Amino acid sequence: MQICGIDDAGRGSMLGPLVIAGISIEKRKLRKLSLLGVKDSKRLSPKLRDHLFKKIIEVVDDYYITKISTRSIDASVKKHCLNNLEAKNMAKVVLKLQPDVSYVDSCDVNSTRFGREISKLSDNHKIKSYHHADSRFVAVSAASILAKVTRDRAIEKLRKNHNLGSGYPSDSVTVKFVTKYYQINHLMPNFVRKSWKPVQLIVDSN
Fold first, then answer.
1. What pTM does this model have?
2. Structural domain of residue 118, as residue ranges?
C-alpha cells in the first residue's frame, strides 16, 4: 500500500515561492522514516533538515516538489482563492505519485472541505486532510522537510543579491528590505508578494 504525505512551506512569507512537496512510500517502510529521526521540519535545525533531505529521498519510493511563483500567489489572493491554489498543487502531487491514500496538512480552517477539494481535483483519490498533519504523520513530516529545504534554498539564492532576512513579516530585516527597496525604486521586486497586507501597508505609507 502506497502512502503519500504532502505539506507546504512559505505560505505566510512576504516573498519568494510557496513550495508544495509530496513523498510516496510503502506503508511497511514508514518505520524507516521514523528511525531516521524524521519529524515536523519546524522542530529541526537547518543543518539537520539538509541532512534528512538526502536521506528521505533515498528511503522513499518517489517524491515530487512544486514551486508556486509570487505571480500565481498574487493572482489567487486577488480572487480570494489561495487555498484553492494550494489544493490544485497538492492534487498535482497526488496525480504525479498515484498513491493509495494521501495525508495532507490542511491550510483551510475546515480540513474536511480541503480534503474533499483535493480529492475532486485529483480524480477522486483518497485524501485524509488534517490540521498539524506534519507533526502527526511521519509521511507528512518527511514532505515538510523536503518543502522547507527547497524553500530555504530558493531564499538563499535571493539572499546572494539582497539582504532580505527570512522573508516573513515578523522579521524586521525583511520589512526593512522591502520598505527600502520600494522607497528607492518606487516598485516591488518580482519576488515580493504584492497582494500581502504587510506589503500593501509599506506601499501605502510610502
1. 0.95
2. 2-158
